[in-house]
Amino acid sequence: MKITATFLMLLGINLMYSQLKDSYNPAVLTRTNGEIIEGFIMQNDLGSYSKGVQFRKTVSATGETNFGTADLKSFVIEGNDFYEVFKVKINKSTDDILVFAKLIIRGKASLYKTVFKSETIYIVTNDNKQYVLEEDNLVSLENRNTDLNYMVELNKATEGNTSKNSNFNEGSIGQVIIDYNTLMGSQSEKIKQKAKNKSFLIANAGGGSRKNETEYFVKGTYRTYFTKISRSTSLNIGLNYFKKEMPTFYNNKTYDYNQELVAVPFQFQQNFANKFIRPYAYLGFNLSYLKTTNQLYVEANNNEGLQQSYGIGVIYGAGLEVSITDRILVKCEYRNEVINHPILFSLGYVLLN
Q1: DSSP bridge pairs for 122
Q2: Are 241 and 210 in contact (CB under 8 A)?
Q3: The whole model's pTM is what?
Q4: What is the rounded CA–CA span in Å between residue 318 and residue 88?
């Protein structure tokens, strides 16, 4: 019995560990003093790259060197993905900030993309000037400045050649830039984006309760977004431990009734938003080991009162995940699997991304 539970735990650990390999990509970094450095940087998403990179001289080297926006002019990943540092004012800030932005279109007017506080920002460069495009809802209504409206800034960047039907997304803004470059007799080079899977290793601990029930748990989850397919859908492979306490009252006496679940879930999760607040739903299956201990049954039948079961079951649920920082998150979740859970609350930490 214990061997099977141990096998499930080792299987989950092995699956998560094997997925964490090869998370470094070859890159060329240009420092602020012009020095060129070649090596490998940790694979990451645009939100993390906007602030800096974690660098290794070789993949097998131990430890990383962190390079931020004050250390580098630019970096190129796998000879294709080009990132350049910009000094900009964002969200009506009075102070300039430094961010790395990814080149999307190169031409007379060029388009870059970055992320600031989970919000997408576009930067257009033209004739050595730069124009920051922010979605309207980033600007507070009471202090709205029309110069921060992305349509106004895009119109300035293209010398009045912006369509009124342009939307705030890469495809629509990119087409405006391409059309403008064509009008100006300039070629537009659309940088081919190599879709890379984005992975996270997340640890969670928490619990929940309802009438006569208390539950607590710890979870480890390896989450992968297959960005070539969808940036909102992920595969989650985990290793979970739940303990549920449900005291039983009989003849004016309280008896322990506990359930312990060790599970290795495989579930597909769909986020309905990719901001710092993310409502989501999921569906999948898990390999599980369930132990139930009934103290009342022990006294009534003079035996161990222990039941154990193993199996494969369906798992589904929904919840809300909120990023407090880049590493810390909180969750509220409804979960249904081999045992009936109360609403669960947890605090999570992103170990690797």
Answers
A1: 113, 133
A2: no
A3: 0.62
A4: 38
